[in-house]
């Protein structure tokens, strides 16, 4: 039987993993290949799962924490998919704080010869990495260890930097990992997607650094810092909202949550929301207070639908994050005539 090809697209919060998998998924499907996607999030209610479902891919979610702790569930999902077809590529988006060497080791032990592993691919955010120029040792542990474990480092968001800044970005990566192959990419403009696509389809996984107990302990400690909370709403609007009003509403909502997070000295990892009706979706994303809210997808006038909000931040407990989502929603929604019909909390 044909082996299932696993291509994990990893990287820290907001580097563009979901966007990249969507773009690669479209590209590979257009070439006549079959694609399946597994997204992995900490929270059961999350924006990425919602977006992938909307795009109509064969998709499954693993929620509750790092996929490396849910391999039985992954095995079950793979069996369910392969009963119907064997995908040419199974994309996996692991949670942002995963440890690649640990995950690949677990994949090899659990699935052995039945899977064909693509190289360890790690995305980094070009402008974010530049902000560590001169003090690279301050990169959060999971982020630097991901670069260290990578066989291929993809420098994403190249559209946000100028060519003169590339040598500094390369220096930072090579300081952490001189072995890795580098790919320059913009998932937004399409630059570098062909190169990454050939790695995903044909590249070979060869090398895995060892995870020592000290590394594993540091990894586990770093996880306790990160909180994630998602909420899902059915909404109605008093009068239909134009695209620019929907964008303003989402921007204010995300900025409202972000300001609450920073006012309690929490650190923003990624605050995102997706609004959708039967025909359209619009995803809004905020990765730092110093970058604007960014949008993906499209929408005509909004007259009601679903809203999923997901806040991921460090140094704040999840119940506090929850109160921040609720608080921002209560402040911002009435200004746009958005009414909450129904709300789902932590679980369905
Ligand atoms: N300018 C620019 N923005 C990008 C690019 N790739 C992704 N983004 C934006 O970056 C933000 C985060 O993208 P996601 O794909 O949600 O990132 P992610 O890594 O899946 O995030 P998490 O799952 O929360 O860790 C979104 O606003 C994207 O539109 C890129 O190449 N250029
Ligand atoms: Mg994602």
- By CATH's scheme, which homologous superfamily of the largest domain applies? P-loop containing nucleotide triphosphate hydrolases
The total of beta strands comes to: 14
Low-confidence stretches: none
Strand content: 25-35%
Give the bound compounds: guanosine-5'-triphosphate, magnesium ion
Q: In CATH terms, what is the fold-level topology of the largest domain?
A: Rossmann fold
- H/E order of the elements? EHEHEHEHEEHHEHEHHEHEEEEHE
Kindly state the percentage of residues in helix.
25-40%
Short descriptors:
single chain, 348 residues, alpha/beta, Rossmann fold, Alpha-Beta Plaits, 2 domains, 8-stranded parallel sheet, 6-stranded antiparallel sheet, 11 helices, 14 strands, 37% helix, binds guanosine-5'-triphosphate, binds magnesium ion
């Amino acid at each position: 039987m044909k082996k299932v090809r696993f291509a994990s697209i990893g990287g820290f919060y907001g580097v563009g993993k979901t966007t990249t998998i969507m773009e690669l998924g479209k590209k590979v499907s257009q070439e006549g290949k079959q694609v399946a996607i597994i997204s992995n999030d900490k929270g059961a209610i999350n924006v990425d799962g919602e977006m992938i479902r909307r795009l109509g891919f064969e998709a499954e979610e693993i929620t509750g924490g790092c996929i490396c702790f849910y391999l039985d569930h992954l095995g079950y999902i793979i069996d369910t998919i392969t009963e119907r077809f064997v995908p040419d590529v199974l994309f996996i988006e692991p949670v942002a704080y995963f440890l690649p060497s640990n995950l690949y080791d677990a994949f090899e032990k659990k699935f052995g010869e039945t899977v064909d592993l693509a190289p360890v691919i790690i995305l980094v955010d070009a402008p974010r990495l530049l902000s560590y120029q001169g003090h690279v040792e301050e990169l959060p542990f999971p982020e630097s260890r991901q670069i260290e474990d990578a066989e291929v480092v993809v420098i994403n968001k190249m559209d946000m930097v100028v060519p003169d800044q590339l040598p500094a970005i390369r220096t930072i990566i090579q300081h952490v990992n001189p072995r890795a192959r580098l790919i320059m990419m913009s998932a937004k403009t399409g630059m570098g997607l062909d190169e990454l696509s050939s790695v995903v389809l044909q590249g070979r996984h060869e090398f895995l650094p060892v995870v020592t107990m000290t590394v594993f302990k540091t990894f586990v400690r770093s996880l306790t810092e990160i909180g994630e909370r998602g909420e899902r709403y059915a909404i109605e609007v008093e009068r239909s909202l134009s695209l620019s009003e929907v964008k303003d509403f989402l921007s204010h909502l995300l900025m409202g949550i972000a300001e609450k997070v920073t006012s309690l000295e929490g650190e923003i990892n990624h605050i995102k929301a997706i609004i959708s009706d039967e025909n359209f979706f619009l995803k809004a994303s905020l990765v730092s207070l110093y970058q604007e809210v960014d949008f993906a997808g499209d929408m005509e006038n909004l007259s009601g639908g679903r809203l999923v909000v997901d806040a991921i931040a460090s140094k704040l407990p999840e119940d506090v994050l929850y109160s921040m989502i609720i608080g921002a929603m209560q402040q911002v929604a009435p200004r746009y005539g958005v009414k909450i019909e129904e709300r789902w909390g932590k679980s369905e």
